[in-house]
Amino acid sequence: MGANEHGVCIANEAINAREPAAETEALLGMDLVRLGLERGATAKEALDVIVALLEEHGQGGNYYEDANSYHSFQSAYLIVDSGEAWVLETVGKYWAAERITEGVKCICNQLSLMTKIDAEHPELRSYAQSQGWWTGEDEFNFSEVFSPADDHLACCSGKDSLEKQEESITVQTMIDILRDKASGVCIDSESFLTTASVVSVLPQNRSSPCIHYFTGTPDPSRSIFKPFIFVDDVKLVPKAQSPCFGDDDPAKKEPRFQEKPDRRHELYKAHEWARAVLESDEEQGQKLRKTMLELEKQGLEAMEEILTSNDPLDPTEVGDLFYDCVDTEIKFFK
After folding, report:
1. Are 179 and 186 in contact (CB under 8 A)?
2. pTM exceeds 0.90
3. Distance CA 263, CA 245 (A)
4. What start-end ranges are recorded for coiled-coil regions in this protein (predicted)?
5. What distances in angstroms separate CA 198 from CA 6, 137, 178, one per listed residue?
6. Which residues contact 92 (CB under 8 A, 6 or more apart)?
7. What is the DSSP track for 264-296?
8. How confident is the model at residue 257 (pLDDT cuts 50, 70, 90)?
9. What is the pLDDT of residue 258?
10. Which tens digit of pLDDT belongs to each residue from 69-104?
11. Which of 57, 4, 6 minimizes the C-alpha distance to 27?
């Protein structure tokens, strides 16, 4: 997931499909997120970038940075800007997309697009027929055609919560949903961990800035959502950037990913300490969590003032916003 300076946001999810993802090295879903954000000034432009790259390079390869494990998968994307939203679901180089015009939409690890398709690969239906998955006589239903026979189920854990609050969704609403472990949105287990989270506000009023709240750390239930605004000369945040290994990076060597380097940044390491306290000392953990939420609340309130103000945003006042938030968080943990 990520965002760019044009207010385009892209989320990516691994999906199960009838056709397994290629094991040969190609573009990963996360690669396509980054490239879509790099090259797309609108949601539709980002979608066009992604499907063009799928056609040219395909998708596939190992998502694990470890030669001892292997997992490849197809991808779904939620692509939005302040004016429109798209759901894009892919199987190999083939794809279908729906333009979302109202309501709530989620992506998860199962295909969700059905008969309402607003754009698609030109050979999508002929490919499905060639594989014997669609006769061409029934109405074309993307998820039924491309899902495994036993895997076409409702799957979005957060959708019910969002629909119940659809008329009054706030940043805090989204943060609460992302922290919900009971529903399965937030996962913290030995085998899988929600690695990072973000909530983005994309105002309809183009004079107001887009504001993105990043954790930069795993498990949103134990992380602080910190505001970021794209402006010229924004201050970089080395303490929230993974270390650079140059030509020694396993991602640049061939064969790739034969070893797993320590990519933890300073904020990540400080957060590990906080997580240990929250798990081991109930009294101190409660105090720590209270202080963390208070820091987060201060950031939310400050950003709300910016969004409701009639005064134009002064870029110099927010250029070091995320830097200061990360610095304060680390100092607090220490």
Report:
1. yes
2. yes
3. 9
4. none
5. 17, 43, 9
6. 19, 21, 22, 54, 58, 59, 74
7. --HHHHHHHHHHHHHHH-HHHHHHHHHHHHHHH
8. confident
9. 82
10. 667 889 999 999 999 999 999 999 999 999 999 988
11. 57
